[in-house]
Predict the 3D structure of the following.
Amino acid sequence: MTEVGKLKEGRFVIIDDEPCRVVGFSTSAPGKHGHAKAKVDAIGLFDGQKRSIVHPTSAKVGVPIIERGGAQVLAVIANSAQLMDLTTYEIFELPIPLNLRGEAREGVEVEYIQALGRRKIERVK
């Protein structure tokens, strides 16, 4: 948990139970009887949807724990890849993003992100 006023562009925040990267942040002056408000624009890490929240700068919001890992592609089956984590040797399967479909081949190393129990292939090394 962190205060809305301490968020910056490029940081991560949880909006509607979805981990998001902050792409826009603006604050308004406090009113006569109110508090300064902050508008946070963010894009979901896993679904790419744009989300916005408006809260007082002193309000608390959730911050996800983002873990990055490396994995090797063991097999490509249709539009998904069977991966083996390079540190834990765990084997799991993830869908291949559209922009990486030609690059993700057997034997290639990829970088993935993990947050809130979900994973996504980020890039090919």
Q: What stands out?
A: The chain has a mean pLDDT of 92. The chain has no helices and eleven strands.
